[in-house]
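Hello,

I think I submitted the iron/sulfur cluster job twice by accident. Can you confirm which output corresponds to this input? Input:
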Amino acid sequence: MFENGNSNKNTIEDNDIEIKGIIESSFLDWDGKIVTTIYLPKCNFRCPFCHNWELIEHPDKFKSISPSELDRHLITNRDFLDGVCITGGEPTLYNGLTKFIEQLKDLGSERVLLIRAYSLHLNLHDHL
Ligand code: SF4
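Support: Only one job matched these inputs. Its output is below.
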């Protein structure tokens, strides 16, 4: 469940994270939890069976979701949501991922689930 975060830091600042898709209330991505799922477009693979190939190959086709839109959604629904799921693509390709996760936690998200394609950056576990 979202808790009231640190009120001095309850915004998602700009970083290199590019959000190209959102499911505001997903009941499927995290067993037993209601989460907001966000999609980041990069991937270092080109799997022929990719379920999100358009997002990987043609990210410009998709409208970007601004940090302030995500902020607003998470704050408005913090009593309803259990957490945030970050997927793609391969989220660990973003240098700003750990900062982004910290911002989500500052905003009040107790739980952040990372669905990743392959390689986890060194030391990322220390921040999750
Ligand atoms: S690793 Fe996943 S997101 Fe990346 S190309 Fe393969 S199926 Fe698509």
